[in-house]
Design a protein that fits this description.
Layout: E1 2-5, H1 10-22, E2 29-32, H2 42-45, E3 55-57, E4 63-64, H3 67-75, H4 89-115, H5 124-149, H6 155-170, H7 181-191, H8 194-197
Parallel strand pairs: 1-2
Antiparallel strand pairs: 1-3, 3-4
Helix pairs in contact: 1-3, 1-6, 4-5, 4-6, 5-7
């Protein structure tokens, strides 16, 4: 299998962490792919018409995208504990947490684009809306942190861990840990996982 990959994408990081956690890493070839928002990449578009990563190409040439679909497919290929619970409340909780983490990442990516504009180009209403959405989500996660800590590591935990790490990576000035001590404690445990340590985003990476 072939995975369109970048060392800085939080959505790609989800997939790579799952590969490491499940022992499937040797079955996937990582292909360095640049997916700039305003510059479609023909090499990626051959496998994902939206020119977005991650995109996984199966042995028969069929593509899969995006990270929730890829992660659930990969989770079907190993014999260990499942990252996607099969049924019942545990499944819906895991999927809800994944959706919240992915949604936060989508907001953060747009927010970062807005923050990179000159002050004259920025829309204050957008900046305020993005800040409110993220702060509200963090407050909800602070309330949920004890439940996160008391449940097994699944796709929800994995996604939220990547999301909070992206805040550290691109929004360090927000100091999200202030006012969220339980969530910060849970995230510290996530960061100690070997899979997380091996996938820390790095602007200097090739």
């Amino acid at each position: 299998m072939k995975l369109h990959w970048s060392p800085r994408s939080p959505f790609v990081r989800k997939v790579v962490i799952l590969l490491k956690e499940t022992g499937l890493e040797s079955r996937v070839q990582l292909v360095r792919s640049v997916a700039a928002i305003a510059t479609p990449n023909p090499a990626i578009m051959a496998d994902n018409p939206l020119s977005q990563i991650p995109a996984l190409v199966l042995p028969g040439g069929e593509p899969l995208y995006d990270s929730p679909v890829i992660c659930e497919y990969l989770d079907s290929l190993h014999d260990g504990p499942r990252f996607f619970p099969a049924a019942g409340p545990a499944r819906w909780t895991a999927l809800r947490r994944q959706a919240l983490g992915d949604g936060m990442l989508s907001v953060l990516l747009i927010w970062r684009q807005e923050r990179m504009k000159t002050p004259a180009q920025q829309l204050d209403s957008w900046l305020q809306a993005f800040a409110l959405k993220i702060s509200t989500a963090l407050d909800r996660l602070e309330d949920e942190a004890p439940a996160l800590a008391d449940s097994g590591f699944d796709i929800g935990h994995l996604t939220l861990g990547c999301t909070l790490s992206y805040l550290d990576y691109r929004f360090a000035d927000l100091d999200w840990r202030a006012g969220h001590p339980q969530l910060a404690s849970w995230h510290a445990g996530f960061c100690l996982r070997p899979s997380a340590q091996a996938t820390v985003p790095d602007d200097a990476a090739a």
